Amino acid sequence: MELVFEILFWSCVAALFYTYVGFHILLEIWGRLVTRKRKKHSRTDNLPKVSVLLSVYNEEAVIVEKIKSTFDTDYPADKLEVIVGSDRSNDETNNLLKRMAEDEPRLQFVDFPNRQGKPAVINHLVSIASGDVLIMTDAKVYFKPYTIYELIKHFKADDVAIVGGNICSRQKKSEEGVAQEKMYMSREMRVKYLEGKIWGAVAGVFGACYAIRKEDFRPVPPRYLVDDYYITMKALSENRKVLQDLKAICTENVSPHIQEEFRRKIRIATGNFQNLRMFKDVLIKRNGVGFSIVSHKVLRWLGPFFLILMGLSLVLLAKTDIYRWFLYLYLVSFAAVSFDLILMKINKHFILLRFLTHFYVMNLALFIGFFKSLKGVKTSAWEPTKR
Q: At 111, which CATH number?
């Protein structure tokens, strides 16, 4: 029986190592062996018309800068429109948008009198958009002058459905409390880029900024929490290509508030498990799509269950010296997180402790999200994360 628990323990360790470290190493090696030349628009081409779509709720602090950063891009002015849907905002967001729309004919404002949830707002905005390519983006994400072109250039290839933007932090590396999230985002962007390079199958673009060919958009069902992942998976299920462009840079502030990030991660985790049930058939695809999704996403989403099984195995193996020490380390890691949470309250930051906390917080959010998804989602309305 001991052998069974040893196999269980090391299998869980291997799964966690593979999804967080090993898969990335594999992609880096594989990516060096793959050379793919895809058609791309040059700046002198007749570029497609673009509709930038935003679903917002109480974004008075950022909406003016967001709209300005969009119209300040170097994409041809006559090929660009922005449509903003306000999901019954009750701050100054609507008034600011109305004033901007009066001065800028390329800006269209849609006021929803009742809360709809982001999917319903996006579905409506798509229905009135005139662009051949849609850019879905968040109010807190700001474009560089070249962002839109870098996204759009890939749509010269007929098989490309979606292109993800490269979300970078606006904060300096020295700012406390954000280093672990910044490094996580940077690493995720690199992994997604390699998935797109090797298979044309990014396992979920970030919803904060991505472009999609309008004809490839599929309406998001009601009460879906992670609309970007649903839209990505629909494209992959129809054998369309999904890419990530590291040059399509846009910036946002990383939240230093662990409670806010925890709430956001629970919502995302709940939506991830919704999508896993919806698109389970995609996991058996043989063109790299299923392999990428299982390696990058599914194993990571199962992380909290691997951690629980590791702990149970170590308790049952603790009579053996080496596993007793592993159990001590396992328990100490949880104690270290508790200590780090105390340090946060007095504004003290130790980067190694913070990475450990980030790892456990993410897995706790996944654990809670799994059970919330089983209960069913009653609404897709959301509160913006404080940043």
A: 3.90.550.10
